[in-house]
Every structure is written in structure tokens, then in C-alpha cells.
């Protein structure tokens, strides 16, 4: 998706993670989560492909999402982690905020790892 001359992922939202406008997210965000972001569609696309149900561009979409998650993967003392979301500022700078935070399935390493494992299978 191109917006104001910048290339953004197709799952970019111009709202805050809460689904409302917010001064903390003046240019929106790309949500990475399994329950709330692109990790969920990755899991669904992967499960469908494993069952032989695909459409044109299906595998390309999986690859595009995996490339995005690979790009934003961070390495910490306890292993890899992914930021919950990426703001426009972070996208421009290529940096993430501090993390990881809570070890939940929806934004935690377990959810990201499982979605990526399904794609690998």
C-alpha cells in the first residue's frame, strides 16, 4: 500500500492499536499480533495451504508476511521476540521500541513462533 509516497504493508491501519485515532499513533501502525494483527492471517493462510486450499497469490502472501516478521525479529537474552506493532516512525527508522513485554499468545513469542511454524510446515 502506498500512502503519502511511502510504501506500507497491506495490513497497515491508520488508527491506533485500540481502533481509534490517537496522538500516540498519528500515522497509524502495522500490528504484528496473532490475535490482533498479521500473525493471525499468516496462521490461517498456512493452515489452508496445508490442506491444499489456495488462491492466486496465496503463497506469495505467506512469503511477504514471513519476510516482514523476519525483518522485525529482535534477539534478546531470553531468545527471539517480535514487537507488538510498528509505527510509521519505527518503519522509517528501522528500529523498535523496548521489549518484549508480556508473554501472551496474542503478542508473545509463542504465538509468533507457532504462526511461523505453520507456514514452515
Structure write-up:
The protein is of the alpha+beta class. The two termini are about 30 Å apart. The chain has four helices and seven strands; from the N terminus they run ββββααβββαα. It is globular. The strands form three sheets. A three-stranded antiparallel β-sheet has the order 3-4-7. The chain has a two-stranded antiparallel sheet with strand order 1-2. The chain has helices at about 40-50, 60-70, 90-95, 110-120, and strands at about 1-5, 5, 10-15, 30, 75, 80, 85.
Low-confidence segments, given as residue ranges, are none
Give the topology string: H per helix, E per strand: EEEEHHEEEHH
Computed over alpha carbons, the radius of gyration is: 14 Å
Percentage beta strand: 5-15%
Q: Could you report the average pLDDT, rounded to the nearest whole number? A: 92
Give the strand order of the largest sheet, numbering strands 1, 2, ... along the chain: 3-4-7
* Class by alpha and beta content: alpha+beta
> What is the number of beta strands?
7
> Roughly how many Å apart are the termini?
28 Å
Number of helices: 4
- Backbone shape: globular
How does the major sheet shape up?
3 strands, antiparallel
Considering DSSP H and I runs of 4 or more, what fraction of the residues is helical? 25-40%
Main attributes?
single chain; 121 residues; alpha+beta; 3-stranded antiparallel beta sheet; two-stranded antiparallel ribbon; 7 strands
In short:
By secondary structure, this protein is α+β, with helices and mostly antiparallel strands. The chain is built from four helices and seven strands. The strands form three sheets. It has a three-stranded antiparallel β-sheet. A two-stranded antiparallel ribbon has the order 1-2.
